[in-house]
Design brief:
Layout (H helix, E strand, L loop, with lengths): L16 H14 L9 H25 L7 H9 L9 H8 L12 E4 H9 L14 H10 L5 H9 L1 H21 L18 H4 L3 H12 L7 E8 L4 E9 L3 E9 L3 E4 L11 E8 L3 H21 L11 H10 L9 H13 L4 H14 L10 H10 L4 H7 L3 H30 L6 H11 L2
Parallel strand pairs: 1-4, 4-6
Antiparallel strand pairs: 2-3, 5-6
Helix pairs in contact: 1-2, 2-3, 2-8, 5-8, 6-7, 10-11, 11-14, 12-15, 13-14, 15-17, 17-18
């Protein structure tokens, strides 16, 4: 076993009371007969271990960031949550040590492990994520200053200080989502241990290529999920203001844990519609990755629409996914297109979604992606039309299912809207050409989106 890492240690005289306490806590944890015990002593032990883990992670990362030759154990700790060789069996240690990361990533999304993500923040390439109260870093600092918790000088320093940004990301986004993606909220342990790993580590590993492969398969169904309308300006070409559909792929961050959930953390970043969102997943999962992605995509569709629509997100005067779906759920009992039997099913669905419009929609979105895309009938007439309008299938699937009367009715509205938009764009672009303005690649891609996709 000499080729394998022993345990994570930190230089710079970190053999303090905290490190000694953490080692004792680890020993106590290893000696637990039931590591998921609900007894107070086990619960307190897990909580203390989590506190110690994040303090250690923070210190280790800030040292490792400036070191081009960090020990293997430290690298595995930062990327995967490895802490001590005694927590894993020999086969697990071997697989983790020789785990092959993707060298050439093929796919639309950039996928980062936690070490890579924090490095980008330290370098100033990425800004810290929103916290659990939906405040971005600047807003959080502004609130802290208004409350008198920090001075104006401290606010300016924290806006520029890369180390403090990293610490903020660890203490907010990382700590909160680490537990959520793990899924074992009450018995959560932040590091790897053998009892929590059922399958082979190689099978559980979510590589960048695996993530992108699964995502591409879903984009073959819901092709427009990452498209959004943004303002396009090109002064050199004389284009003052046009609106075009642009595909903006999210950043995907992998938490160092074995987990069962995905999180749609931000639909956009930096408050700009053209900026990418942030999705969070465990770096090891025993759950079908496709299922995790579908849930995240459904929530992303809802939240992006809500953000773009602003205060009108549920105003039926302004047609959108969120406004029409909310109206459908709110008044389903009065809907003449739904039978009494169907209305009872909607009632159960509302209860299952805990009266949360987004979660109720997600149930329909999952059925849309998993069953209806293959021709299966799972949705009622009203829900199917809304999904067909705002989450349309790719062209090949539309052509395949349109032959079925239930689907042809649902697709009719989408086709009418698309044809109307194509005519509007063609007229608009002809007018631009008459004014001697070139139709740029961006404008042409916008027309292709509505005409060919």
């Amino acid at each position: 076993m000499s080729c394998y890492p022993k345990k994570v240690t930190v230089r710079n005289n970190y053999k303090t009371e905290k490190s000694i306490k953490l080692e004792q806590l680890l020993l106590d944890f290893m000696n637990l007969k039931d590591k998921h015990s609900a007894e107070d002593s086990a619960r307190i032990l897990r909580k203390q271990l989590a506190e110690g883990f994040y303090e250690l992670y923070e210190r280790v990362f800030l040292i490792a960031f400036h070191d081009n030759n960090i020990p293997k154990a430290v690298d595995l700790f930062l990327k995967y949550g490895y802490l001590d060789e005694r927590l894993l069996n020999k086969e697990q240690l071997k697989e983790l040590y020789f785990l092959e990361e993707d060298r050439d990533v093929n796919g639309p999304c950039k996928v980062y492990n936690m070490k890579e993500w924090l490095s980008l923040i330290h370098q100033g390439i990425k800004e810290p994520s929103k916290n659990e109260f939906d405040l971005d870093y600047r807003d959080m600092l502004r609130e802290e200053r208004k409350k008198g918790k920090i001075t104006e000088a401290e606010e300016k320093d924290m806006l520029m200080n890369s180390t403090k940004k990293v610490i903020y990301e660890i203490r907010n986004m990382f700590r909160y989502n680490h537990r959520v993606v793990n899924g074992q909220i009450t018995t959560f342990i932040p590091f790897l241990y053998s009892d929590n790993i059922i399958q082979s580590i190689n099978k559980l590993y979510v590589s960048a290529n695996r993530m992108n492969s699964e995502l591409n398969a879903l984009l073959n169904i819901d092709y427009s999920v990452f498209y959004r309308e943004i303002m396009y300006v090109n002064n050199e070409k004389g284009i003052e203001k046009e609106y075009v559909m642009k595909q903006v792929f999210p950043d995907i961050i992998l938490m160092p844990t074995v987990g069962y959930n995905g999180v749609m953390w931000q639909e956009i970043s930096e408050k700009r519609k053209s900026k990418e969102g942030r999705f969070i997943f465990p770096i090891f999962t025993e759950t079908t990755l496709k299922d995790l992605l579908i849930k995240v995509l459904g929530r992303f569709r809802w939240e992006l629409c809500r953000t773009i629509q602003g205060s009108a997100w549920n105003n039926i005067k302004y047609k959108s996914l969120t406004s029409e779906y909310s109206d459908y759920i709110q008044f389903y009992r009065k809907n003449n297109n739904l039978s009494e039997e169907v209305k009872e099913k909607v009632k159960v669905q509302i209860q299952k979604g805990r009266n949360n419009y987004r979660e109720i929609f997600l149930i329909d979105y999952e059925a849309w992606m998993k069953s209806e895309s293959s021709g299966g009938i799972r949705l009622n007439k009203v829900a199917r039309e809304l999904l067909a309008t705002y989450c349309p299938f790719s062209k090949s699937i539309r052509e395949r299912v349109t032959g079925q009367p239930l689907f042809s009715d649902a697709m009719a509205r989408f086709e009418r809207n698309s044809q109307k938009k194509v005519k509007e764009l063609e007229l608009r672009y002809r007018a631009l050409e008459k004014d001697k303005i070139d139709i740029t690649e961006e404008l042409m891609e916008n027309l292709i989106f509505y005409r060919d996709l």
